Amino acid sequence: MENVLFYAVLSLGIIGGLSATILYFVARKFKVEEDTRIEQVTNCLPGANCGGCGYAGCHNFAEHLVQEGGKSKDVCAVCDIEALHAIAKILGGEVVIQEPMVAVVKCGGRKDVTAVKAQYEGMQSCQYASQLYAGKNGCPYSCMGLGDCERVCKFGAIVVNKETALPEVDESKCTACGSCAKVCPRHVIEMRERGKNNRRVYVSCLNKEKGAISSSHCKVSCIGCGKCVKACPFGAIVVENNLSYIDFHKCKLCRKCVAVCPTGAIVARNFPLQAKEESSEIVIENE
Is residue 16 helix, strand or coil? Predict the structure, then answer.
């Protein structure tokens, strides 16, 4: 009996050893050497794996950049200028620099300007809740306020204010990775250029219903009246489907649209507090 066990164990050991040897030589034979530049580029990337580039992580994005051989126009929004130069040097390509971007919340439906029409007590997820009901104020385009954007942000740059039930962006932390915009089921968050002196003008509403219906949901909704279009001297504003939109590439930050908006749906961000209007021109003081 002992001899049988001995030979059985010996046979298994020999088979295992032969199998390991065969696998070793097969692995050596068919081994695929990874381009050393992939690791170099990966080390230049922030390692946040935020997915803002459209790839699963920084390593996958580095593989893409190396495969493109420095010709790719894709860029990591989180990288600083030094990292971009380092990557360009490794790949032998040109530095791709984009205008600084920032996340913008395009919903002004705070608790004080809306009426509660429904209560939600289900799973605390915007993705889930948006499939079940329009929202507390009945607006089918409003922010759900359940924090999917806050949970997905790896930089702590966006937090849902419990008083207003709306997300707020800490611009000093926002890297413009775009994760919050991608996860929002209502597309309430938009990536826009930071603008000159970090100033921006945008319509803080997405409601495409007619004015009367839109106003019944929210006091500061866009009603598509078109006054902003007439006031803009740069052709930066259009009204489509009862909703105004300001093209940040054309906007010169004159804020004439802000002055004529009857509902206050247009937001001017990071401008000096003291300003006055003279002869239809807005004059900025204390700059």
Answer: helix
| pTM score | 0.72
Q: What angle do CA 126, 202, 209 make, to 5 degrees?
A: 60
Q: How many residues are there in the chain?
A: 287
Measured CA to CA, the distance from residue 242 to residue 274 in angstroms comes to: 32
Contact predicate 258/266, CB 8 Å = yes
Angle 56-62-64 from CA coordinates, rounded to 5°: 80
Q: Are 155 and 48 in contact (CB under 8 A)?
A: yes
Q: Would you tell me the crossing angle of helices 81-91 and 58-68 to the nearest 10 degrees?
A: 50
Reported in sequence order, the residue ranges of 99-169 that DSSP labels E, i.e. its strands, are 101-105, 158-161, 166-169
Two tokens at 22? Answer: 């065969």
pLDDT in tens, 78-134: 888 888 888 888 888 777 777 889 999 999 999 899 988 888 888 899 999 998 888
Q: Are 115 and 137 in contact (CB under 8 A)?
A: yes
State both tokens at 109.
């439906």
221-260 residues labelled b (16+ CB within 10 A) or e (exposed): bbbbbebbbebbeeebbebeebbbbbebeebebbbbbbee
For residue 149, what is the enclosing H or E element? helix 148-152
**Dihedral sign (CA 25, 27, 33, 36):** negative
Identity of residue 26: V
